[in-house]
Amino acid sequence: MRRLAGARELLDGPLDDPATLEGNLRDLARVNRRLGGTEASRRAVDHLLDHRHGAQTMLDVGTGAADIPVALVASAAADGRDLRVTAVDSRPEILDAARAVNRRLAATPAVELVLGDGRQLPWPDRSFDVVHASLVLHHLEPRDAIAFLAEASRLARRGVVMNDLVRARHHWLGARVLLTVATRNRYTRHDGPMSVQRAYTRVELRALLAAAGLRPVTEVVAFAGHRVAIAAVAIPPVAGASAASRRQADEPTTPAPGS
């Protein structure tokens, strides 16, 4: 199944229907919770944090309803850890909708909502233990995806976690059937199957990470393989390698069609 490049989802366009946007964020939160997306992120983040105690920080980029950050903070607290999350989204409409639909946000001061572009974030290098993003990469074409991953790596002390859909024809068919039955929300029905078409395969995700100077250390697969959370760490620079050779090594490979 070839990747659908250059397409735009409804969420990428004008967000001028607050009720529909809020319904879409509720749908996404349910999908995260029930189909294993949240659990995949938790396990991948925990792998990087290694259950260390004391204050820990995470940057969540493209936070949506901030349901995953809230769940991770609660999970850390149950384990006796203090996790603080800065949750960023580039659209003020989405942050407003998150406050409206996620009642747990008001009761979770450890999650702070911030407006910002994930490709140009204002924090200094190594400002957070972990940088996490869920369902972001498939919105980006390869060049922008690599820039985003490099920016995430710049900010992370311990590593990054990228959680996204995995492109495959059976996952696309499953999304069409499930969302037709499960919701009437027009954003969700339109964007869900298209997101699968825009997503990368696991081979392609690894290539994007490598091009950004990152090496996977664990991959957590969600229900039926429709989604994966990859924890990755920065690749140390090779001693004596020239800048030109490093750039050549970082060029992403193009997997064979249908991989």
Molecular structure report:
With 259 residues, this protein is an alpha/beta fold. It has a single domain, classed as Vaccinia Virus protein VP39 (Rossmann fold), CATH 3.40.50. It is built from 9 helices and 7 strands. It has helices at 18-34, 37-49, 67-78, 92-101, 142-155, 169-182, 186-198, 202-211, 243-250, and strands spanning 55-61, 82-89, 111-115, 128-134, 156-165, 214-221, 227-234. Strands 3-2-1-4-5-7-6 form a 7-stranded mixed beta sheet, sandwiched between helices. α1 packs across α4 and α6 (169-182) packs antiparallel against α7. The protein is globular and about 50 Å long.
Task: Tell me briefly what this model is.
The chain has helices at residues 18-34, 37-49, 67-78, 92-101, 142-155, 169-182, 186-198, 202-211, 243-250, and strands spanning 55-61, 82-89, 111-115, 128-134, 156-165, 214-221, 227-234. It is of the alpha/beta class. A hairpin with a 5-residue loop joins strand 6 (214-221) and strand 7.
